[in-house]
UniProtKB/TrEMBL annotation:
The lineage of its organism: Bacteria, Pseudomonadati, Bacteroidota, Bacteroidia, Bacteroidales. Keywords: Antiport, Cell membrane, Membrane, Transmembrane, Transmembrane helix, Transport. Its main location: membrane. One of its GO terms (molecular function) is antiporter activity. GO terms for cellular component: plasma membrane. It comes from Parabacteroides gordonii MS-1 = DSM 23371. The chain crosses the membrane at residues 12-33, 39-59, 71-91, 111-132, 198-219, 240-258, 264-281, 337-364, 371-393, 451-473. This is Na+/H+ antiporter NhaC. It comes from the Bacteria. It is found in: Cell membrane. The keyword DNA-binding does not apply. Belongs to the NhaC Na(+)/H(+) (TC 2.A.35) antiporter family. Coiled coil: none annotated. Residues 167-472 form the Na+/H+ antiporter NhaC-like C-terminal domain. It is a multi-pass membrane protein.
Amino acid sequence: MDHTPAKIPSPLLSLVPILVLVALLFVTIRTFGSDALSGGSQVVLLTATAVCCLIAMGYSKVRWKTIELAMINNITGVATALIILLIIGALSGSWMISGVVPTLIYYGMQIIHPSFFLASTCIICAIVSVMTGSSWTTIATIGIALLGIGQAQGFEVGWIAGAIISGAYFGDKISPLSDTTVLAASVTDTPLFKHIKYMMITTVPSMLITLAIFTIAGFTHEATASDQIAMYSASLRETFNISFWLLIVPIVTGILIAKRVPSIVTLFISTTLAGIFALIFQPHLLQEISGLPVQDMQSQFKGLLMTFYGSTGIQTGNPDLNDLVSTRGMGGMMNTIWLIICAMCFGGAMTASGMLGSITSVFIRFMKRTVGLVASTAMSGLFLNICTADQYISIILTGNMFKDIYQKKGYESCLLSRTTEDSVTVTSVLVPWNTCGMTQATILGVATLTYLPYCFFNLISPLMSITVAAIGYKIKRTNEKTESIATD
């Protein structure tokens, strides 16, 4: 059955739903701030979907059944990602309460030295972000502590915030636990670990350059040691049973990833293993979470299940540490899942109406070579970050807009997924009115434009993506392992 619209909308008319989306998101974000993801953005997406459907049915004569089928197909396409997000919620809770993440933070902080403070800050935030899969959590917890340490040592807040954000977004970008990483892979139909592996080509050089800059800056700054590191480490040890044995969990997870075990299986095994270690090493915390007065099997069972599915909070006597060890579990992923479903409805309506194809036809004119294709994708991702003020929506729209173009030109989907992450995930925090930019500026107490010049990883990543495309290094095609740009 042919589902081609009877009348294809012009690119200008096709932009109407997107303009409605941008305008409503602007008002929503101004009204709700970082809480816009709790429902406001989802309602806006459905409203923009309704506008798209009205144009499709009225102008393009598209049947409702066709639009509905496109929405269902889109949601079906991200079903695996939604399951992964739920497991990630359980995993992040179990890794934290079992003591895995606190152990990594504890030992990671031991490497801090005044001359290497900026580079160490970047590395620590990267490690925590990889383990938690959340740049927001990393910045709001260990980032706050490191900001205080850096200020005590005399560093400017712009440099400190830049190091924190660079490390946090590096970890967020390559972590299999990150919702943006899972989303970018799923929207472009790319296997998660294949997506992460291919990102290393641009992400690792960007991070090495960033660390080099922070190392040089650290050596040119005279700073004194601070007792805050010792205090924070002591609080971690008093709350958790810190042990090298807990490192077995990330090591096993790494082995499973290296052996290319399916994402859901890997994450489930890792969550289960962390749960077992929580029972062994942190029974007192499980009892505290359960709220039961006696430490027995019932309290352990209840506390463990609550760690998997719900929000938890541990009182440590240290406000920063309280924020760090709090978890959201599976329930904390529901806003993201809700947003993805609404965004898939919008993408389905845009596709069925022919509007997405009409808009992308404009970009095709500038895509004669690989570098033009990648540069157009990167610029579109940045543009959508600025217009929609939300990284999740920008990832979904970028992936949907360019997916067919990459397929028609014979490129593997991992090139699109990598470019999307290189341009959308990392630049969202650089836009003052984006949810990421607003949130991090509020959390750190540093204006977006103050830390922007020092977020070297975030600034370098999209440029590295375009540079690698221009060189033609490991540009993958569906019919060949690699192909040089010279053959385009």
